[in-house]
Design goal:
alpha/beta; Rossmann fold; 4 helices; 9 strands; 25% helix; globular; binds guanosine-5'-monophosphate
Length: 186
């Protein structure tokens, strides 16, 4: 996808700069501790890969796949764990890394679920925060950008499981996206 798709909201350079700042802060906050970073799939994988490379202490990583949206653009209201952690997190310092928080349902569910596994500490890091849409309160410790309520894609975020590979974040233009998806060879 060489041409600009969607309405760019956050550029590649802006993301790079902010991820570096978050990495520096997390490095300082967790110096000398045993940090386990948990990537929430699929949406956070691009952010996670960049973030871990901007953290300059030893970290271990694990992955969880959850789903709350299905294929659409609004929450189904229920969080489903599709795949769980591979290692125990008891007595570890845990940092959950998520792509975006909207109503807060997914993160509050993950927070409660992982806290019950008795980690030493548990914190949350999100790339994007749709603050105005919050229904479920969850304390978020690290936030990349606060954005408006539009549905966004790119840098890991999808529309119908596509467009995660855009290197920037764009507001979804549903008409343009559908046109592109429908014109592919089958
Ligand atoms: P919440 O549970 O906070 O309502 O929704 C969080 C989840 O919904 C995110 O992990 C993400 O998968 C999805 N989501 C929320 N807003 C957007 C958006 O603007 N774009 C995309 N692609 N996914 C979103």
């Amino acid at each position: 996808m060489k041409r600009i798709f969607g309405k760019p909201l956050i550029t590649q350079m802006e993301i790079e700069k902010r991820v570096k700042e978050l990495g520096t802060k997390i490095t300082a906050d967790y110096e000398g501790r045993e940090l386990v970073m948990i990537c929430i799939l699929k949406g956070a994988y691009v952010f996670f890969a960049d973030l871990v490379r901007n953290i300059h202490i030893p970290v271990s990583v694990d992955f969880m796949m959850v789903s709350s949206y299905g294929a659409g653009t609004s929450s189904t209201g229920a969080v489903k764990i599709i795949s769980d952690l591979s290692e125990a997190i008891k007595d570890k310092d845990v940092l959950i890394v998520e792509d975006i928080v909207d109503s807060g349902l997914t993160l509050s569910y993950l927070y409660k679920t992982l806290r019950s596994k008795k980690p030493k500490t548990i914190k949350l890091c999100v790339l994007l925060d749709k603050l105005e849409r919050r229904k479920y309160e969850t304390p978020i410790d690290y936030i990349g950008f606060t954005i408006q309520t539009n549905f966004v894609i790119g840098y890991g975020l999808d529309y119908k499981d596509n467009f995660r590979n855009l290197p920037y974040i764009a507001v979804l233009d549903e008409g343009e996206a559908e046109q592109l998806l429908n014109h592919r060879e089958r």
